[in-house]
Structures are given as C-alpha cells and as structure tokens.
Design a protein that fits this description.
By secondary structure, the protein is mainly α. It has helices at about 1-35, 35-50, 55-60, 60-70, 75-105, 110-135, 140-165, 175-200, 210-245, 245-285, 290-315, 315-320, 330-355, 360-410, 420-440, 450-465, 470-480. The protein folds into two domains: about 1-415, no CATH class; about 420-480, no CATH class. It contains 17 helices and no strands.
Length: about 500
C-alpha cells in the first residue's frame, strides 16, 4: 500500500508542479496586479463567502463517498445515479441560500452579479470533486491526478491570452477571470465524468427521495465537519472586508500572503486526497496504519517546516518580487500564514486518518471549538491589527486543532512516539533556522536574496537526509515490488 501511495503521489505532484505554481504566481497574482488590491480583495472576499457555505452544496458527500467506495467499490453502481440527482437539488438550494444571504448582509447589485458567477463555479467544481471521489475510491489515482490539473491548465491558456495577447485595449477586468473559470471548471467536470464512464457502467440519473434522505443522514457528520473547518479557514477574508472601512484593501493584502500559502497548501492537500482512501482501505482490512502515517508524516511535516522557515526569513522579498504595490504588512501576514501551513500539513495526515476511521463526532467537537476560537480572535484582533490580526487568529486556531488531532490519533491507534525521529526533527528545525539567521544577517548583505533563498532551501533539503528524516533506503523500498501478502 505504501508503494501505491508513493508512486501515485509522485505522479500527482509532477502534474501539479508543472501546472499549479505557474497558475498561482504567474496568472492569479498578475491578475491582482492588473485589477488592484481593492477590486481583487472584493473578489477574494466573495470567493471566501461562497466557500464558507459550500457545505449546502456538498453535505459531506465527497468524503463519505470516497471512504465508502474505497471499502466497497461495487456500491458505485447503486449510488452514482441517485447521488447525482441529489447534487442537482443541493446546487439549487445552495445558489438560493447564498444569493439571499448576500443580499441580507448588504452586497450591492454588482457584487451580487459577481457572486452569482462564483456560485456557478462552485457548483461545477463540486460536481468535479464528486466524480473525482469515485475515481479515488476506485483507486484510479492517475485519472484523478489528470483531472486535478485540467481547470488550471485551461485557465493558464485563456488568461495568458487575455493578459498578454493584446486582444483589447481595455484594462483587464476581474469578470473576465471569473468567466474563464466557469469554462475551465465545466471542461474539468465533463472530463472527470468521461474518465469515470470509461471505467464503470453507470446507470441513468434516478431521483430517490428515501435514498437521498438516507445519504444526507449518513453524510451529515462529514457535512458538519467541512462546514466548521471551512469557516475558520475562509472566514478571515469575509470578516476583513465586512468589518473594516478599508476592508476591500485589507482583504487584498491578506490575499497577497494567502496566495503563497495556498500554493503550498495545494501540495499538502494532495497527500490527503490519496491518504483518505488508502487509510480507509487499510482500516477495513484491519491492517496497521502506522507505516503509512510514518511515511506521509516524514515527508510532509519536515517539508512543510522547511518551506515555512524559508518563507518567513524572506517573506518581504518574496512578496515584493511578485506584487507591484506590496507593503510591509503583506510580508508580515505571509510569515504568519506560512507558519500556519505547518499545522495544516499535520492535519492533512492525522485529521484524514480520523476521518477514515469514522471519528466524525470527535473531529466535529474539535472543529466547533476552532470556529468559536477563530471568531472571537478575529473580532478582537481585526479592528486593531487588520489583515495581520486575521492571520494571527488563523495561526492560533490551526495550531490548537492540529495538536488535538495528533493526540487523538496517538490514543485511538496506539501510535508510538518515535523519540529518535522527534529529536532529529527538532535538530533539523533548529539547524535550518540558524542557517536562515546567518544568511539574513548583515554579514551576508552582499549576497542577493534570491541566492540566499536557494542556499537555505537547498541546504534544508540536504539536512532532511542528513538527519535521516527521509531515508534513501526507504524511498527505494517504496518502489520495489512488494512481497506476497505484504502491503509495504
């Protein structure tokens, strides 16, 4: 199972490294430069608003379906057509709810118009995720990986033409970006469906009221978990835009740092998308999850620490290199978000394991506490510290929830603490920080910052192997043909 995880992870990472970084830093960031922090900040806030209530569009079906299909693949024949009809109804409920709530909280006509297009995009993305959950549940990871980059690949092509193709003398409009997303998401959804059709014979759409109610009841714990986690992940930008006089600009500043954070987060999320069905499969077979936890943890968490340290030491330089009108505040926000990334990386392992095991009630309690904490901290910090306060609230919330999940996993799955690995991890972190302090000191002012970034990140990568956080022999073992009756 570890071998399957590793080979598919590399394929998934390769595709995403080829496409998503250019989209995030080449296209998305350039669009913010063109339209300005205020206009992009409004878009970013509205996007966060649609994400928060995305639960009405999904009600936890994707996570429930991935776990169920990975354990009982034959159920796809029974579930697919009925779930699709349910999702159509949920899409209508979601659209009406978001539009009405948007009007209630004071969005004007032009903002509602933009919101409607973003709602359409969320609906298309939700169908894509459902189709992908079936591909992942069937362990068809290569098809899932291809679908995961189709929308971004198309957006790169379309937006590159709009940005640099000299098709019009008008300045770039944020609406063009949203329209391009609609097209790209539609193609992605259709592609995912066709891939699934090529591997499974699917029945026609069939509405079944009793089945739909049963699915909603079964997936309700997943739905609540997604709602709670999305709230303290996406509410910051909405609260910034609504609470402050200069809220749109502050949301734009927050988006500067969030874009880098999201790029790293997208890579970490790929682990979770592979780990959920693999954990669920192992648990069904009553096999130990410890080797897979160790493998994913030894790759993801030290890697996240290295990325975070590098970004913290050179936050202002990285932000300034990409944005035309960056501020000191943008770099400070970016630093906090990248520290936050370390905790989120651990959540993608331990939170995913708890989800696969069905510990939804416990996870929901943790997430609910996180929501309350995040709201309180935002209400206290945003009026004074603005975007920096929102980032600080996110850091505290993610840190506490991540630690809680780790403690629960240790208890539920009897995971032993590897003190040798822990000590090596601490030494790796301290040595990397020390190198960062040296390189950023006045003694090395003559070294160009981008060269220092290369030295720090490259040295940190070497330290991962020196401290045997990643062992070459184990990496080689992953790609060897497993012995009979072995899952490693």
């Amino acid at each position: 199972m570890n071998r399957k995880f590793a080979t598919n992870l590399i394929f998934l990472l390769l595709l995403n490294f080829l496409v998503k970084p250019f989209y995030i830093f080449g296209i998305d960031a350039e669009i913010q430069n063109r339209v300005g922090a205020e206009e992009y900040g409004l878009y970013f806030s509205l996007l966060g608003f649609t994400f928060i209530f995305n639960i009405f569009l999904d009600v936890g079906i994707v996570n429930f379906n991935t776990r169920t299909i990975s354990q009982q693949p034959f159920l796809i024949q029974k579930y697919f057509s009925k779930i699709v009809s349910l999702r159509v109804l949920l899409a209508l409920v979601y659209a009406v709810f978001i539009i009405v709530l948007g009007a209630i909280i004071g969005y004007n006509q032009s903002e509602i118009y933009l919101l409607i297009w973003l709602i359409a995009n969320q609906v298309l993305a939700a169908f894509t995720l459902y189709f992908r959950s079936n591909l992942a549940g069937l362990l068809l990871f290569k098809y899932d990986s291809i679908v995961s980059v189709i929308d971004r690949f198309l957006l790169i092509i379309i937006c590159s033409i709009l940005l640099w193709g000299n098709l019009t003398t008008e300045p770039f409009q944020i609406y063009w970006f949203v329209y391009a997303q609609t097209f790209a998401y539609a193609v992605s959804a259709i592609s995912a469906f066709l891939f699934l059709m090529s591997k499974q014979t699917l029945s026609k759409i069939n509405w079944d009221k009793l089945f739909s109610l049963a699915i909603i009841r079964q997936s309700a714990p997943y739905a609540l978990l997604i709602l709670l986690m999305t709230f303290y992940y996406r509410a910051d930008s909405v609260m910034l835009e609504r609470m402050l006089i200069d809220g749109k600009s502050q949301a734009g500043i927050y988006a500067n740092g969030f874009r880098f954070f999201e790029a790293a987060n997208n890579i970490a999320f790929l682990f979770a998308s592979l780990l959920l069905p693999l954990f669920a499969n192992l648990l069904k077979k009553k096999m130990s999850v410890a080797p897979l936890v160790k493998l994913s943890g030894s790759i993801l968490i030290p890697g996240a620490i290295l990325v975070a340290i590098t970004c913290v030491f050179y936050s202002h330089e990285l932000i300034g290199a990409r944005y035309l009108n960056s501020t000191f505040q943008s770099g400070a926000v970016f630093s906090l978000l990248m520290i936050c990334f370390v905790f989120i990386a651990s959540t993608y392992i331990f939170g995913t394991l708890l989800t696969a095991n069905g510990n939804l009630k416990t996870l929901n309690k943790i997430a609910f506490a996180g929501v309350i904490l995040n709201i309180v901290l935002n209400l206290i910090l945003i009026p004074t510290y603005k975007a920096y306060g929102a980032a600080l609230a996110s850091l505290v919330t993610q840190g506490i929830t991540a630690v809680a999940q780790i403690i629960l996993c240790k208890s539920y799955f009897k995971l032993n603490i590897n003190y040798s690995l822990l000590v090596r991890g601490v030494l790796f972190t301290l040595l990397t920080i020390s190198l960062g302090l040296i390189l950023s000191s006045s003694y090395f002012e003559f070294v160009p910052w981008f060269f220092s970034v290369f030295i720090l990140f490259g040295s940190g990568t070497i330290f991962l192997f020196v401290f045997q956080l990643i062992e070459i022999k184990n990496v080689k073992k992953l790609f060897q043909k497993p012995e009979k009756n072995s899952y490693i």
